[in-house]
Queue: 3 jobs
Job 1
Amino acid sequence: MTLQLRYVAGVSPARWLRAWTERRPDLPLEAHRVDEAAQLAGLHEGEIDLAFVRLPVEADGLHVIPLWEEQPVVVLAKDHAFADEASLTLADLADEPIAPVQDDAAMTIELVAAGTGVAFVPHGVARLHARKDVVAVPVTDAATTRIALVWAVERDDDDIQEFVGVVRGRKAKSSRGQADDEPALSPAKAAKKAAAERRAAEAAKAGKGGKGAKSGGKGGRPAPRTGAGAKQRSRRRGR
């Protein structure tokens, strides 16, 4: 028996797959990327157990857990007049022709590179299909998109709930719905969090090492005092 997972372009499920393999080596999980048009295919029929989808979706008969929001970007040909901009607005792009949208995002971006127009896609999709002849620029006032984890209501068993726990950061011994659940992070935010934790640990280690140095003597003993006060004390002690 295996769990079947599907995910749309822009989702990077590798860290959850690793966590699942460590936690449940008895139940393999097979994951495959699918086109957004087919993101719900097989869920109601029981062929697929779970899916990372891009909202909105028809939620009848499904459990839906919204996860992270995606930054919208516009993909431009590398020689476009706006290609060097740090960010753009919808007003900036109001007169730009739109490249014909294809079911396969890679083909849409291919048309952008060919000069047919620009394309609006989530940042993760642009990153997945990055190429040298196009650039992706954030659009600050465009509507964001959201990734969600979904599964069929009738498929709501312990195995499914355990994978949901992995995605939500639930510890292996935690029960469903316990207070230690953490909101799922996107892969980029998870990497930033891990880097911040490493920096904090290094800073704490450096601070602990510097504490003894400030005391001035071996073993943390204070350094000997010098000056007039020290000489007067020495005379009183007959030194």
Job 2
Amino acid sequence: MIVRQRTNWLKMLFIWRGSVLKKIVVQLIVILVFSLSIYYFKGKIFDYKVHLNPTIFTLIGLALAIFMGFCNSASYDRFWEGRKLWGLLVIESRSLTRQILSLVNDSSPEEKEKIIRMISAFGWSLNYQLRDKSGTEHLARLLSPEQAEQLKDKKFIPSLILGFIADWLNEQQKKGNIDTIVMTSMDHQLNQFSNISGGCERIHNTPLPFAYSVLLHRTVYLYCFWLPFGLVDTLDWMMPLIVLLISYTFIALDAIIQEIGEPFGEEENDLALNTICRTIEYSIFEQAGILQDELKKPDTYFID
């Protein structure tokens, strides 16, 4: 995901990174060439003049805009819910780390470092599960060799790491390092981790209904390809440019809807999961005073 400060209006016109223009430039070129050919032949196909009243496109465009607004809202809701879940993960990771550092008695710093590394490993494992990647380099770095071995060829790794954390807490309770009240509070934290994982999986595994995507996609392109016939007689030589502008608006919004509707991907406008994971790790390691030579401090503005 690209996060950058808003620049002046002139630079905004020429920004390439983060724009969906590079994904739709071929479609726009095809529509421009098609519009130029319609202008050249004055709206005729094999000597047959195609008569389309511009009013028709006004009505269709209004209906299309309303439908695209609905789909855009649905996609952004998915994007924002995913961001809230990952924001909650940051908060809960720091809270659980604070409780471990301040409320777990008589436990050695090495033991506490193990559990804090497991908390960081949970975030990385959820990240890579949502992106259908293994992420073994982070698990090998943060977990013990025995734990990393247990996770080989497993599918729901975040749930297994939560099990490792729960086992550590149970062991500390048996040693008398955690009382019942503190244990209940930490168990609530683990339930929050589980809810976050389940919420992300729900978004990842339940995309927008395919029928919506197909209907929107077809309608946008049919509208754009029929539009030159309705405007050629009224706009004359300006018609290809106006059609290109209208097509850019509709096709770009269609591309944005598809992109943010899958917020856990690795496109430029998807959520910056790698940076969020680095933020979690850096902040909880800093709380615990763990050396962070292997980890670069996350930037405020970044390209994930």
Job 3
Amino acid sequence: MHRTGREQPAVTALRRVLGTRLADFRKAADMTQGQLAAAVHLDRTTVSHIEHGRARADLSFWQAVDRLTQAGGQLLTAYRELEAARDDHAAAAHPSADLLRADPLATSDDVAAIDLVRRVAASDVSDETLTHLELAFDDLSMAYPVTPPAELLVRLRQHLSYVGRLIDCRMTLRQRTRLVVTGGWLSLLAATVHIDLNQPAAATARLRTAASLAQHAGHDEIRAWCFETEAWRVLTQPDYPRAVTLSHAAQKLAPAGSSAAIQAAAQEGRAWARLHQPRNTYATISRVNKLVTPLPRPDRPEHHYRYDPDKSVAYVATTLAWVGDPAAESYAREIIARLRPGNDKWPRRIAAANLDLALTLLVTNRLDEACHAAREAVRSGRLVPSNWWRAAEVVTTLEAKQLPEARDLRESYEEMRRQQTTT
């Protein structure tokens, strides 16, 4: 999104009309500017500027708002008419480089400058292709909670390979930025999947790629997510002090109030809990709650990079369980009760909640119940390798307490590991 520069009055008038139509459709859909902004990952001020014709937006924005406001293609059509009018005026105002070459008065520097503009504007990659890639990333991010990591990784590699092939194509600067940003998001998600699969070297390589692409595109949100994701990786190693440092770096980079900022704060709280720092832990829980409270529920809460306010309950359950607070029990049971009945969107969250419940029950010395909750998590088939250590922690504790049922739990745990290692 960028402010409009000097343009023909007719084009400016069309832009204002388009902005007014957006406002009308938004209001008809009973959405505020803030809600629409959150849905398309912008701030409310930018949406206001677009509605008043003071800022431009690209094709992906108009495709998204057309869908969100149920405009039935009307906003998208109006946007394309505006772009066609703008291109017509631009063509009339600037003669082609070929005509300038025929002008004996044109200097070589003039020709070189105009030819550079022509080459920047030329493209072998359509906006539609880039939009399809962006939508594909959204689909993969929403598939993340329910798709086995190894299966999702295959699809991510295919899309990253395609991005790699497109990088060598001729395209406009705006299109190249879109492609680089999409490549950054895909690399970030691939890194997360590698972490789930306990593949630290591959995860690190993917994170470096994502961070590099984000740096080139000036995309601080992706950079923040890279630090947040690395914080989670080292948290599972474990390297708790470094997890705190990485979480702070992510929060410093992340846009205020963004999903990346919230999730990074959540990782900080988990790290403090594992460091047995209750004061810092509770302070961070309070800070996360303040960030989450004003958030509307996103239209696609299963999207891995859009923070779902309901997720905060699961976060509190894990953090309190790790700090050894018995209050974690009520939060874990709430998650299990809320998500289990016929809900297949959050299987991993249910498995994690059962582990949190088991850990909390150990604190209160309710060993039989802890064993049952841990067995539910282990036999669910939804614990990814990066979470095996959490299950092992419960199994080992129950064995140390010489609970007879611990043997059966250990067998279930080892069977889970064998099955997931061979698939």
